[in-house]
Structure formats: C-alpha cells, structure tokens
Amino acid sequence: MLRKLLIRNYALIDSLDIEFDDKLNIITGETGAGKSIIMGALGLILGNRVEGKYAFHDGSKCIIEGYFDIQQYALQDLFDEQDLDYEAETIIRREISPEGKSRAFVNDSPVTLQVLKALSERLIDIHSQQATTQINTEDFQFLVLDSVAGNAAALNEYHTQWKHYKTATKTLRQLEEAIAKSNTELDYNQFVVNELDTAQLAEGEVDTLEAEQLQLENAEEIKRGLLQSIHLVEESEQSIVQSLRDTQHELQRISTYLSGGDDLLARLNSNIIEIKDIAAELVQKEQSITVDEERLQFVNERLSTLYGLVQKYRVADVNELIALGESLREKMKSLHNQEEEVSRLQEEVAQAEQLSLEAAQALSEKRKNVLPDIKQEIEKTLQKVGMPNAVLEIQLTQNDIFNTHGTDKVAFLFSANKGQSPQPIHKVASGGELSRVMLAVKSLVARSSSLPTIIFDEIDTGISGEVALQVGEVMDALAAHMQVIAITHLPQIASKGKRHFKVYKEDQDERTLSRIEALAPEERIVEIAKMLSGAQPGEAALQHAKELIAG
C-alpha cells in the first residue's frame, strides 16, 4: 500500500509530504485547489508520460517519490522477473530535469516506463469518473468474472495452450503454403532438371572445349608451323642438330688442349640430346594435329549448347548450372519429407486445439459458477447506495473462435428501474448510476484480489444525501480489505475517512502554491461542516458534521 507520497517542484507544488493511513483516506478541497495536481504527480510514478509544464521552479529538478509497503502482496516474482532489488518498503522515484528529460527508479535501480507500469498495475487501481466507461468493455467484464472466480492459474494454463495452438497453426500454414508453391513450380523444376541432365554437364568442360576449338580452328596453321620447326631443328642442311654436331666435333678435337673443354663438351652433349627430344615431340604433335571439320562442328555445337544454358538460366558458368540442378533435385526430393511433416503438424495442431478447448471450457465453467454470486453481491451493494430496484444480468455465451479470454463472450446488462428490461449499461445508466455500479463492482473485485490500493477520484458525481452516505459506507467496508484513497466533494463520504487531508491554495510572495495538510479531529469537524453549509458553518452544521463522523 502507499505509505507516503513526496512531491518536490511540481506544477503549483513547491514541496508536499503526504503520509497515508492503511484504511480509508479522504482528500477534499475546493475545485482548483490542486487535487488533480496531486493525482498527476502520483500518475508520474505509476508510469504516465510527462506532458505540459511541470516545474514549480524553472531550472530545478522535479522529483516525486512514493513509498509502498508491499510485504503482504507476493510481488517477489515480479521483482525477480524485472531484475529489481526487492524491498518490503519499496521506493518508486521519478525525476524530471529542467530540460524535460525523465528518469524512473525502483529502489534506486533505473527502470523504463514499461517496467514502472508493470509494477504499478500490481500496486494501485485509480478509478476516476472517466474510468466508469471501463465497465462497458469486454476486457473489464472478464476481469471481474475471473477475479471473483480466482481464475489466475486457469487463465495462465489457457494462454499457454492457446499460444502453442497459434504457433503450431502458423507453422502448419506456412509449410502448406510452401508446399503449394513448390507444387506449382514442380513441372517447371522437373523440366529444368531433365534439360540439365540431358546436357550431361561436367565441371571444366567449357575450358577444355574452348581450348580444343581454338586448336581445331587453327589446325592447318599449327601443322605448317610444326613442320617448319621440325625442318629447322633436324632436317635442313644447316639444321640446329647438324650445327650442334659440327660444334661437338670441333670441341672434341681441341678439348685436350682447351682448359675446361671437357665441361663445355658435356654441356653441349646434353643440349644435343634435349634438342633431339624436342624434335621428336614436334614430330608427334604434328602427326596428332588433324584438320577435322566434323569434330570442330561438334565442339562448336556443344559450346553453343552450354553457352545457351548458362544464359537461359542466368548463371555465371557451367558449375553454377550443375549446382542449380542439384538444388532443384533436392527441392523436389524434400517435397515428400514436407508432406510427412504436414501430417505430423496436423496432429499437433489438432491436439493443441483440443487442449486449448479444454482449458477454455475449464475457464468458462468457473465463470458460470460465480455468476449468481456476482449478480447477488453487486445488486446487494447497489441497494445500499440507493438503487433498490437495480438488476444486473450477466450473459455468458460461447464463441467458436479462441481469443484472449477463451471461447466465451460476456455482456453486462443493467436496469435501474422496475419494469425496465436490462440493457447494455452505457445505454441506460446515468453518470451517477454508472459511478455507483462501478463502485459496487470494484468493491466485489477488491475482496477477490490482492491489489494493495484503490483510488476513487471524484466518482461521486450525481449523488447526494442518503445515497452519498451509503457510498461512503461501501468505501469504508472496502477499506477493510485494502487501502482506499477517495477524493470527494461530499461530506457524507468524507466523514467515513480514517485520515482526512485538505488541499488548499496559498499565496506566497508573487506565487500561488498548492498545499495539503492532514486534519486533526476538530479540524475534520470544521472541514466537513464547511462542506455541508459553506465557509462559515453554524452550530447546526458543526453538530451534523459530528454526527456524520460518529456514524
């Protein structure tokens, strides 16, 4: 629960310290005194964004701190989940720099607004006049049913099964779409594979064929060059071999007289052998070269085929053509495995759907079981707050589609008067009636939840007299289960508080400030008397105030 709220340098507030009681806290004050400013400051530590002008002193930091006693509310798991230090008295702080930059802290650990909101949802429920429209939403109506039915564990189970069902269904749909696309492409892929198989592709074939093509196209020129080379090396009168042999003869004749002559002769002999080997190889090559027009035509046609396939399938070379064929073969082969996977996923989806349906039905049964109690308790509270003929009907019907609430659809129907058939609340309830219905609902939910604090922000519009007194008693009864903070203009409600705060404005130098003070018992009497009769209450108003406080 909220033990203390500190506000520094915010709007019309220079500095405020508010210490709350753990039961019913009342905040009163004239319109415009600053009650909404206090709620705005509280909203900042609950995760609201900074909007508009916020600083009382320009150039100084704005700080709001809330001290929460959370030891009885099983929040350890939430702190662990958010990697926060758990403290029995947790301090939430919001700082806003003069430049408008905001920082948030939980027990001095910096946190995001998302974390702040996740924590605040477990600490405080703020109910304002505008919030009465919540009762028309299906989300809120399910919240009421599930809170009273104690459906937290059942909801978690359903959401687990439903998530599995959605994931499996999505996976199955994606696989079926992929198979359908593959089947559409199957004939084309088979054609491509057949064409590539018929071509009998081989890695490096193009390089080999291009080299052969070059040789075949120039065969006559090559033979002429080889024959001339053979003639020059070995067959002419002045052939290279004959010249070397003449040189050999001369060196042999003088080698006995020439220093180093033997070495020169040995080297010359080696060259003669090498040249003769070259001549023999030239002869072999010349004999192997043929002018083969038929082979050249085949090579040209083969290269044309390969070039055409490369261009047709927009790849770089034959190696990529081979890779394309392998890829398409694997793709067609995988179709069979995908069909088996579809069968497996269909079974998984069917099982997940059944488990989701069972979990949804368990939720629905628990909701149905508490419908009479919800109707009875809310109508009972409405009778207390001046609506003796109020009727609340809750329609719970089945839907064929899973959603976040299971397979149920819910509708709260309301009638405030005899002879009026129940209709959707927003169509038949006035503002004051809506406020009282919402109060009755919140009172019921509070007894079923572990939420520490609820704040009623001026929800007393449209009520007065005995009804207002009964509303105050309902709030007082609610405070037996949780901390209640009520901002009100009605003395009947204010008289029920265990601690009463008065918000007022004060002029100081050239500035107007908002102040708040906890009223002593005698001050409470005077304040409530003023709410009854005006700024100068008489003895009758004071006596009436005492009687209201005495209950």
TrEMBL record:
<feature type="domain" description="RecF/RecN/SMC N-terminal">
    <location>
        <begin position="2"/>
        <end position="509"/>
    </location>
</feature>
<keyword id="KW-0067">ATP-binding</keyword>
<keyword id="KW-0175">Coiled coil</keyword>
<dbReference type="Pfam" id="PF02463">
    <property type="entry name" value="SMC_N"/>
</dbReference>
<comment type="similarity">
    <text>Belongs to the RecN family.</text>
</comment>
<protein>
    <recommendedName>
        <fullName>DNA repair protein RecN</fullName>
    </recommendedName>
</protein>
<feature type="coiled-coil region">
    <location>
        <begin position="165"/>
        <end position="229"/>
    </location>
</feature>
<dbReference type="InterPro" id="IPR004604">
    <property type="entry name" value="DNA_recomb/repair_RecN"/>
</dbReference>
<dbReference type="InterPro" id="IPR003395">
    <property type="entry name" value="RecF/RecN/SMC_N"/>
</dbReference>
<comment type="function">
    <text>May be involved in recombinational repair of damaged DNA.</text>
</comment>
<dbReference type="InterPro" id="IPR027417">
    <property type="entry name" value="P-loop_NTPase"/>
</dbReference>
<keyword id="KW-0234">DNA repair</keyword>
<keyword id="KW-0547">Nucleotide-binding</keyword>
<feature type="coiled-coil region">
    <location>
        <begin position="328"/>
        <end position="365"/>
    </location>
</feature>
<keyword id="KW-0227">DNA damage</keyword>
